[in-house]
Amino acid sequence: MDIKTLKEEVIAYSKEIGIDKIGFTTADTFTELKNRLIRQQELSYQSGFEEPDIEKRATPSLLLEEPRSIISIAVAYPSKMKNRVESKQGERRGIFSRASWGLDYHHVLNDRLKKLEEFLATKMPGARLKSMVDTGELSDRAVAERAGIGWSGKNCSIITPEFGSYVYLGEMITSIPFEPDTPMEDQCGSCTKCLDACPTGALVQGGQINAQSCISFLTQTKTFIPDEFRDKIGNRIYGCDSCQTACPVNKGKNFHFHDELEAQSEVAKPLLKPILKLSNREFKTKFGYVSGAWRGKKPIQRNAIIALAHFKDETAIPDLVDVLENEASPVSRGTAAWALGKIGGETAFAALKKAQEHEIDLEVQNEIEKGLRFYS
Ligand code: SF4
Ligand code: SF4
Q1: Which residues pair with 21 in a beta bridge?
Q2: Ligand 1 test: best mutation among 192, 230, 240, most atoms within 8 Å of CB?
């Protein structure tokens, strides 16, 4: 079969299996990306979650023998929940970012890529194929940009004209010499809305992010959240969408093509107080299927405590005292101490004083002091 026809067949098949956009690029080294990653590393702007080997990130030939092309895929996800939670007075809820609504997208995209691999294997037996989604070596965004899926926005997302930036990305390196598509023109122009909307200034300039001050990254860490970011996190318990919701291209973009990506509102926007009491098993049962659960219960619990402090929810004081007195994790105990101080009141004060006498962890003691400082 000639490669041009195969490409057309791949495009047609991709629509059948729930891929919303597909693009093709060469397997050449991503030179610009490599230079950008080196700069990011020098500035300590990386998250630490990414593949540490920059050469591997930028060089497809290190990942597959004699690669000839990369197929980039995009799957659109909703920006609004179909079933919204009914807000009752006094009920405080946290929010997962949109990329953590519905079934973990890694499963969804890996499933699509597996089907595509099977398709290609029947059409071209012996073809070498290697797929990845997010956690692979390649940069999904750099591949998608070069394959013409969208342009790289100042908010560091790939922006498609059709679905905005609400797309999940994945790719497949292949030994098949598909004709590459043309990259898209940058359409951000003079707009700076995403930079203006970022609560922490993490977008240091258009297209450059300091992950260390990005709320999306911070909500995934397992340590204490640095003081200067706690008030800015608000009720985000996983991820942050502010630089996407601010983007004018995303306005009105809300696609519900895939049932498995629909949010269960009680999971995507859960009540905060019950999160403090979840066992690991209960957490897995309720949240285990979403991508935001990948770091386990503790970061979500810590973020829920910060969100309760943000709301100054006095009804949460007994639960926070319970965390301060009984939780095994120092990060949870310490964050609860800070939250109690921020919410304030006599009960919180008494609990902080009591904990100050018994607490043996130095970091937690430090947080207790911070909590008590709210009273001075
Ligand atoms: Fe800023 Fe949030 Fe975007 Fe991170 S995800 S760059 S914190 S707006
Ligand atoms: Fe580009 Fe404006 Fe969207 Fe930022 S908000 S990504 S500058 S179009």
Answers
A1: 74
A2: 240
Structural domain boundaries in the chain: 3-78+98-174, 193-254+262-373
| 108-159 pLDDT tens trace | 999 999 999 999 999 999 999 999 999 999 999 999 999 999 999 999 999 9
Looking at ligand 1, which residue's alpha carbon is closest to its atom 2? 240
DSSP letter (8 states) at residue 206: T
Predicted TM-score (pTM) above 0.90: yes
Contact 25, 180 (CB under 8 A): yes
Contact 22, 76 (CB under 8 A): no
Residues contacting residue 75 through CB under 8 Å, at least 6 positions apart: 18, 19, 20, 105, 108, 109, 112, 167, 168, 170, 257, 258, 261
User: Could you tell which of 79, 141, 152, 154 is best to mutate to test the pocket of ligand 2, judged by most ligand atoms within 8 Å of the CB?
Assistant: 154
> Is the Cβ atom of 209 under 6 angstroms away from ligand 1?
yes
* pLDDT score of 270: 97
Other beta carbons within 10 Å of 273: 18
SS (H, E, C) 116-145: HHHHHHHHCCCCCEEEECCCCCCCHHHHHH
Query: Any residues with CB less than 8 A from the CB of 2 and at least 6 apart, and which?
Result: none
pLDDT at residue 61, rounded to an integer: 98
146 in contact with ligand 2, CB cutoff 6 A? no
The predicted-structure confidence for 223-272, as pLDDT tens digits, reads as follows: 999 999 999 999 999 999 999 999 999 999 999 999 999 999 999 999 99
Q: Is 245 in the pocket of ligand 1 (CB under 6 A)?
A: no
Taking phi over 0 as left and psi of -120 to 50 as alpha, with beta for the rest, 207 belongs to: left
Bridge partners, residue 286, by sequence = none
